[in-house]
Amino acid sequence: MSPQLWGLLAKYLIGEDGVNATWDAGGTRLEVTLSTSLGSGPITLVSSPFSSPPSLLALIYHRMKSFSVALALIAPVHAGLRFGCSSLTIQRIDPVVEPGHNPSAHVHHIVGGNAFNATMTGDVGARATCTTCEMAEDFSNYWTAHPTNGSYHRVPVKNNAALAAGTTGGMTIYYTQQQYITAFPPGFRMTVGSPTTSTLDQARKHIGLRYNCLQTLLNRGPEMVDFPTKPCPAGIFAVHHFPACWDGKNLDSPDHQSHMYNTIQYDGFTNAPPCPASHPVRMPQLTYETVWDTTKFNSMWPSGAPNPFVWSFQGSSGYGTHADYMFGWKGDSLQRAMNKSECFYDGCGSIKKQTMNIANQCTVKDMVGEQTDGWLTALPGMQM
User: Fold this and answer.
1) What is the mean pLDDT of residues 25-47?
2) Which residue among 26, 76, 276, 326 is buried most deeply as judged by most CB within 10 Å?
3) What pLDDT score does 58 carry?
4) How many percent of the chain have pLDDT more than 90?
5) Per-residue b/e over 43-64, b at no fewer than 16 CB within 10 Å?
6) Are 288 and 144 in contact (CB under 8 A)?
7) Helix, strand or coil for residue 104?
């Protein structure tokens, strides 16, 4: 990646949670100073012309676990997008797992294009007319289950750090690549995780699905595979990393996962092993980040009491976190973005963007007609 792009990264880091990042005049040496928040006084890390700035930033990330800009922490990343999508709708519809069913089994939080409905086939991007995402050519839909507090009040979503002004709740979406990739084709869909995951051992196998108990919006704390066991000062951060190797044939599979293969080993943004012969096509690394604002319920969480939060599918451990994806980029726009080394964060030459006040005008109708907010006596779809 060019010095100019790493200079852009430095701009994002300046002043973020006690971090100062500067380039030398020649753009070949990145110096990052960490504040005393690490407990040992200021620390300065320097990348020489012979070392990789991404490697340096990965070190910082593992020391501090405090940046939402994780895209920049992988070495090497040749192109990538990071952008926000405001919330589109919250209702019991799932066109991937339960196509045609209205309602579906549990409530989902959905962002993206307005073609979203109970039945979605073919080229979604060709049917949508607007999107809640900053990338104006992205009419995909992204969704996850939705958590509630223990007495079934829906937990609100709040903005992640370093998103476009006006982003309302929603998700942070990443598309990254470390080598030449093939963009998802029209009609493609997949899921990651499962609401039936019920044990710690099962959850640990989903390496790309993790939580963080936010100390501040930029200080995440350690990753965990289940819900935090104590109140989080700034909310609960959930991340979903999808597999990035495709069989090259099927747009979907009966379990919505077998047509993909996961090469994530440790860090969710790193796909080091090559794709296997059974799934030879490397696709973009897709990631969702969501910040659940659990802070309004912290005073209702007695000291020493179990975690009160429950996913909309009735999961209280957090093990069953999962996410769905329906590809809907217009034409070859995603392929162009992944081909361009200057694509970084939300800036990418010919890829069109929109202001979030325009994105926030995009809506879909309530297709189920049930109450999902306020103090409920039971989870929607789970009434006895």
Assistant:
1) 46
2) 326
3) 40
4) 42
5) eeeebeeeeebbebbbebbeeb
6) yes
7) coil
Whether the per-residue pLDDT at 128 is higher than 70: the answer is yes
The Cα 28–Cα 18 span in angstroms is: 23
Q: Residue 68 contacts by C-beta under 8 Å, 6 or more apart in sequence?
A: 160, 161, 162, 172, 217, 218, 289
- What is the rounded average pLDDT for all residues in the chain? 79
d(CA 2, CA 364): 41
**How many Å apart are CA 77 and CA 177, to the nearest integer?**
6
Strand partners, 323: 144, 192
Residues 266-283: what's their mean pLDDT? 80
**What is residue 237's DSSP assignment?**
E
Using alpha carbons only, what angle is made at residue 23 by residues 20 and 27, rounded to the nearest 5 degrees? 160
> Interior CA angle at 128 toward 177 and 142, to 5°?
45
pTM above 0.85, yes or no: no
Window from 7-21, 98-112, 156-170, 316-330 with minimum mean pLDDT = 7-21
Pick the closest to residue 327 from 142, 86, 110 (CA basis).
142
Tens digits of residue pLDDT in 226-271: 888 889 999 999 999 999 999 999 999 999 999 999 987 765 566 6
Across 196-282, where does the E strand assignment appear?
A: 209-213, 223-224, 236-241, 245-246, 260-261, 281-282
- Which two three-digit tokens encode residue 318? 């957090």
**Which residues have CB under 8 Å from 78's CB, separation 6+?**
1, 177, 178, 179, 341
Higher pLDDT, 304 or 383: 304
| Most trustworthy range by pLDDT among 66-80, 177-191, 200-214 | 177-191
What's residue 271's pLDDT? 60
Distance CA 52, CA 57 (A): 9
Q: Long-range contacts of range 119-124, CB-CB < 8 Å, 24 or more positions apart?
A: 119/95, 120/95, 120/96, 120/326, 121/187, 122/186, 122/187, 123/186, 123/187, 123/328, 124/186, 124/187, 124/326, 124/327, 124/328
Residue 294 φ/ψ, nearest 5 degrees: -85, 0
* In contact, 208 and 268? CB cutoff 8 Å: yes
Give the Cα separation of 84 and 136 in Å (integer). 11
SS3 content of the chain, % helix, strand, coil (to 5): 15, 25, 60
Cα 146 from Cα 108, distance rounded (Å): 5
